[in-house]
């Protein structure tokens, strides 16, 4: 726990000089929501050497990045990746067809269950998600299919999470009506009644966006040879 | 006369832009005399200020209800209300019930089989036999 919090604090101090102050002042809530602000940084960059000095004692604490009421040590950690996202040349050529078409759908996976959603959809999960509060924003990063009216981007089996952005807002917790099931044993008059009243987390898909090739290349995507496991775009028959 | 589209009223989709908590008011009723309100009185004295400070968007009303069991009642934006009798409960249990009322959507409890409900029209459209290429059998 201690190592995680120190890592987070170190990363937080690292990222501070990168984020432009005007943006973080204007958009305190959305400042850390975008992945471009949370890219993995090369360890030999001059920025890190400058921030490797004991910065915590010198720098005053900045306002938290995503939620003001959450202390900085408990802010969500931006994902760190070992390698840049790899795309094929054919994907780069066909991706504009998908991104330029209007509305998109995504088959987002949560605990290995697919949820076919579009932007603005209401999702009632079949379980109660632990450690979330109403108003939290969750980024769904596991998807198998993203599509528009005529084009579909299919992963094998899943898409790289850096190809798209899908966010959901937690609305609250709901329950289902209590159900009573009667359990009986043979040759006995006794009937056992089992009650169940499950809770469900409610979510709303607040954002769904497929990144354009320009964004991918700007974030450091690497063009690679075509292989069987690379994602590809299919046209509706 | 020009063709006019069907006029549609925008439907509220809480959470897409702004997020508004559905619980707008919490009524707490207690009795000074009865023993079933002992936990409720302790909750009002010690835990309610912190709860109210955490949730500034919820209006909190405390009122006596003599010779009756203590009740928590949540009022929701959709006009419904939920009441929970908290007789003989400990303050921690009452706090759990208050959190339950806070996070609830206010809708009537329903069994739901499909997890996703959508107001958007189908992204890929409806299948038509007259469009698309011919399939050879």
- The counted number of beta strands of chain A is 13
Percent helix of chain B, as a range, is: 10-25%
Rg of chain B from C-alpha positions?
24 Å
The main sheet of chain B orders its strands as: 2-1-3-4
- The overall average pLDDT of chain B, rounded, is 92
Mean pLDDT score of chain A:
78
Largest sheet of chain A: 5 strands, antiparallel
Strand content of chain A: 25-35%
Report on this model:
The complex is a heterodimer of chains A (237) and B (137). Chain A has 237 residues and is an alpha+beta fold. Chain A has a domain at 82-183 and 192-235. Helices cover 20% and strands 31% of the residues of chain A. Chain A has a five-stranded antiparallel beta sheet, covered by helices on one side. Chain A has a four-stranded antiparallel beta sheet with strand order 4-11-8-5, with no helix packed on it. In chain A, strands 1-12 form a two-stranded parallel ribbon. Chain A is elongated. The N and C termini of chain A lie far apart (52 Å). Chain B is an alpha+beta fold. Chain B has a domain at 41-85 and 102-107. Helices cover 22% and strands 20% of the residues of chain B. Chain B is built from two helices and five strands. In chain B, strands 2-1-3-4 form a four-stranded mixed beta sheet, with helices on one face. In chain B, strand 1, helix 1 and strand 2 form a beta-alpha-beta unit. Chains A and B meet through strand 3, strand 4, strand 8 and strand 11 of A and helix 2 and strand 5 of B.
What's the quick description here?
Chain A is an alpha+beta fold. Helix content of chain A is 20%, strand content 31%. In chain A, 21% of the residues are buried.
